[in-house]
Amino acid sequence: MIQDSPDYWKKNRVEMRAAGFDPDKAAQVNEIITIASAWTNAHRCNNRVREIADLLTDLIGRRGGQGLVVGAPAVSDALTQGTPTAGYSLVSRDVAADCFEIGHRAHHGQGMIVISGCDKTGAAALMPLARTNAFGLVLYPGTSSPGRVSFEPYAAKGRNITIMDWAEGRAAHESGRLTREQYLELESNVMPGSGTCGAMFTANTMSTCAEAIGMMLPRGASHPADIDAASPIHPDVQAQAAASVDAVYRLIEAGIRPRDIMTERAFENAITTIYAMGGSTNMYLHLLAIAREAQVPLTIDRIQAIGERVPLIANLQPHGPYAMVSLHELGGVPVVMKELLRAGLLHGDVMTVTGRTLAENLAGVPDLDALGKQDIVRPVDSPLAPPNNHISVLRGNLAPDSCVLKLSGKTLENGVFRGPARVFESEADTMAAIREGRIQRGDVVVVRNVGPVGGPGMPEMVMLTIQLQGAGLGKKVALITDGRFSGVSHGILIGHISPEAARGGPIAAVKDGDAIVIDPAARTLTLEVGDEEITARLKTWAAPDLSDRVSPGSVHDKYVRLVSSAAHGCVL
Ligand code: FES
Questions:
Q1: What residue ranges line ligand 1, CB within 6 angstroms?
Q2: Does the global pTM surpass 0.70?
C-alpha cells in the first residue's frame, strides 16, 4: 500500500511558488485534501462541479488545509445515448476512477472528497475511495429540479416532470400522440437548470448507493443542483459541501477509512435501499465494480439474494410519478432507510461518514406515521410492488452466466412473457424497425453484439425503450439484449445477457422466429430451441470483426482486451 506523503508537496518551495502558492503557508497546511472533480461545461449533469470544487477549496483553506483539484472525463449519457459515441460511457467509469486515483496519489493527498454527477462519475466516485482507502466521502452536485406542464396526462404529475417525460413525449409526438404545441411546452419546462436526470434513474441510483452505503452525508443523494440555470448552486448543495469538509476532518481525526465503512453489511444496506427505491439495472455493474475495489466478495447472485427480500416502496419515476426532488422535500433517502430499518431489512450498526452508525444517523428522522398523508414512500407492509417485481437476476440457456430483468414494478399478464424473436445486430437497425412499424405486439426484440466487447463499451438501449413506450408498445413487447439500459428505461426488459454475443454466448445463436420465454417467478430466460440445435448453431459462430469500431491503440482497443463480462461488473 502506498503511504500518504504530504511533506513532498508542502516542502517543495520552488514548485509551490511557481504554481502560485505561498511556500511558507503551504508548509503550514494541516491536511491535503484531493477534490476529485469531473467537471465539464458540456452538459448539465456535471457543469456545476467546478463551482463546488472552488467552494470546497475555499472551505478547506479556512480550516488550514489545502484542496488540490483533480479532474477526469465526465461523460453524459444524455449526449451519447443512441449515437456512435455511446460506447464511451461505461468505459469512462473506469477511466475516471483511475484519474482520481492517479491525481490523489501523485499530488500526495491525505483525504479525498469526490464530487460525483452523471451516471458514470456517480459510479466512479466510490471506486477510488475504496481502492486507495483514503479518508473521504462523496458529495453529489445534485439532480435536476423537476418541471411542470399544463396538459394531461403530464399535468396530473404536478411539479414532477423529468427528462423521461420529455423523451417519451418526443416519441409520442413522433407517433402522433402529442401535438407539436404540447411537445414544445414539455421541452421548455422539463428541466429549468443543471442537474442529473431527475428521478430514480442511474445517477440518482448511484447517489442513493453512496448515501446508503454510508459514504455520503445523510440527505445528500437527493438535493436539486440549483433552482434554475441562472441561479447559484442550490443552498442544500452548499450546506452539504460545508458539512462534507467538516466530515473529512472528523474522519481523519477518528481514523475512519472507507473500508471501515464499505463493509459487506454496508453493501447489503445499499443493495436493499436501491431495490426498495426501484433503482437502475446499472447498479449491478457498478456495485460489483465498487465491491472489487473495497475487497468485498460480492457476486451478482448475492445481490439478487439480498434484493429478493425487498419490496418496492418509493413511488419514483420510472415506475411511479414522482421526481427525486419530491423525495428530497419529504426528507430524502433517510426516510426510506428509516422504514427499511424499522422493518428489519437494514443493518443499523454499520459505521458511516458522520462518524456515527446508521441507526444513530436515522434516530432523529421522522417515521412514515409522523410524516402524515403522502404517497412518495410506502410502508414495507403495503408496498407498491412485492419483492422481485422491479429488478432481478435471471439465468437460463440464453443467459448461462446471468442477465438482469427490469419490470419496473409491473406484473406480467399470465406471469410469463412468451414470444417470437426479432433479431437485430445493432441499435440503429432496431430503431428503424420500431419506427417503421415492423415490431408487433407479442414480439421479443433481441438486440445483440452490443455488449462490453461487442458494443464496444456496452451502450444503453434507452432510445429503443423510449421509442417502444412512445409507440404504446411498452407493455406489449419485450426487449432483450447483451447491452444495458438507462435508469430511464422501463417496460419488459432484459439486459446484461452473459456471455455476450461477441464472446460466443448463446444469444449469438438466436434466429428470427425462435420462441423466447421470460419467467420472472422462476427467474429464467429460455430459448425454446433444443440444446443440440443451439450447439450446432454456435459451431458456425465467428467472433465479430470490430475493426470498423475499434482503432489500434484507442481506449476501446485496450477496453475489449481487458473487460470482464457484465456478470462480473465489466471490471477491468
Ligand atoms: Fe446525466 Fe442522465 S444524462 S444523469
A1: 45, 76-78, 118-119, 196-197, 201, 203
A2: yes
